[in-house]
Specification:
The chain has 91 residues and is α/β, with parallel strands linked by helices. 47% of the residues lie in helices and 14% in strands. Helix 3 links the parallel strand 2 (46-50) and strand 3. The protein is globular and about 35 Å long.
Length: 91
């Protein structure tokens, strides 16, 4: 599911109440991310995949109930490792 800016935030938040999010390298600090991820069901664990994690990202990951999954830029661009992470997430 792609999270985009716009009026569909409520519908996306409803979906996130039933499904675990898998966020790929997206800013966790913009207003849309904070609004949508903050309103989701935190009882369902989610994953965050990014080659660059900062201390501030760690704070937001905890706030939004997401677990960081490390990935290199090479792995991200090759899709093999990303596909594996998605499959593990879906299991």
């Amino acid at each position: 599911m792609l999270v985009k800016r716009g009026n569909g935030d409520a519908a996306r938040a409803n979906i996130l109440n039933e499904r675990r999010p898998f966020v790929i390298g997206h800013s966790l600090r913009d207003d849309t991310s904070k609004r949508v991820l903050g309103a989701r069901n935190h009882a369902l664990p989610g994953n965050y995949v990014s080659p660059h994690l900062t201390e501030l990202d760690t704070i937001y990951l905890k706030r939004f109930g997401l677990v960081a999954k490390g990935i290199t830029l090479e792995e991200l661009s090759s899709q093999g490792r990303l596909t594996q992470l998605i499959q593990e997430h879906s299991a």
